[in-house]
Amino acid sequence: MSAWTTDILGEPYERRIIDLGVDPDGEGTVSATLVRRSVAGAPRAAVIYVHGFTDYFFQKEFAEFFTDQQIAFYSLDLRKCGRSLRDGHTAHYVSDLAHYDAELEESLRIVQEDTGAPVYFAAHSTGGLIVPLWLDRMNRASGSKARGVAGLILNSPWFDLQGAPWMRGIGTEAVRLAARVKPKTILRLPALEAYGASLHVSRGGEWDYELAWKPLSGFPVTVGWLNAVRWGHARLHRGLDIGVPSLVLRSDRSRLLARSSEEVDTVDAVLDVRQIARWAGCLGDEVTSVPIPQARHDIFLSRKDARDHAYGVVADWLDRHPPSAG
């Protein structure tokens, strides 16, 4: 386990490497990276943010929203993602989403040791599937609230496979068969650069980030990884019990766009928001589901009016679900 050092985002951001040992998927050794932005004095709570596919933490505005409310902010770059990606790794590849339990458990331990405060989790897209599955397993084993988790905030969580209905049936079975034979086979999917191009400063967007860790067209999708996601979807659809209240944010409209247009700035161009609304109730406990008009896939990378609206919704939810309630 490493010590805290200055992060690539500069002060006051720090990072700490979580060594995870040998990769169960056979790609050498793996680690995760925990980033923190502390608050002055004792925090009233902490939050751990988990990114999605083709993503990592770079959104300082999101961190500052929490620290302004005396909530210590932490973010976890999962194994083979962002700061944790190493030579020889297939970016974001896991054969089972439960492999992430190790870094989630360790990040929770570190943050509780660091702050002594209750912990919220926040997650985006694929992270919004990974974290509820882990919380469900933890809740059934020892109770999420008993472990000091206060609540969950999801930003456009990936609750089902977007696209044509046949892809969720025949397509999924084909993926499962292929994953048994050659799990790292890359799927030939249409190039969807519109969303990434709408974000990055190099294409006139508002956000600056490392394109090696978040390429505009996304990382290649492997059948083994997608198979792991589809098993996660199936488990979610049977119903979870995460043991804590949750807030589920989504855009009010989807449109999957291959090319950049003005519309890409005001819709979810990655997931089907109807699926997010449909499956939100499968989290268990108390669920608050809120559409954010004219939001992008990442709600907190939307245009200012939309993300300000979303921040207001989160602030209100936090007021109604204070950490002492857990």
Summarize the structure.
Residues 42-262 form the Serine aminopeptidase S33 domain. With 326 residues, the protein is α/β, with parallel strands linked by helices.
Textual characterization of the structure:
The protein has a nine-stranded mixed sheet, sandwiched between helices. It has a single domain, classed as 3-Layer(aba) Sandwich (Rossmann fold), CATH 3.40.50.1820. It is globular and about 50 Å long. The protein starts with a strand and ends in a 6-residue tail after the last helix. The longest helix has 17 residues, at 304-320. The chain has helices at 60-67, 101-115, 127-142, 165-168, 170-181, 194-199, 223-237, 273-279, 304-320; strands at residues 5-6, 14-22, 29-37, 45-50, 71-77, 119-124, 149-155, 246-251, 287-292. With 326 residues, the protein is of the alpha/beta class. Helix 3 crosses helix 7 and helix 5 (170-181) packs across helix 7. Strand 6, helix 3 (127-142) and strand 7 (149-155) form a beta-alpha-beta unit. Keywords: Hydrolase. Residues 42-262 form the Serine aminopeptidase S33 domain. InterPro entries: AB_hydrolase_fold, Hydrolase_4, MAG_DAG_Lipase.
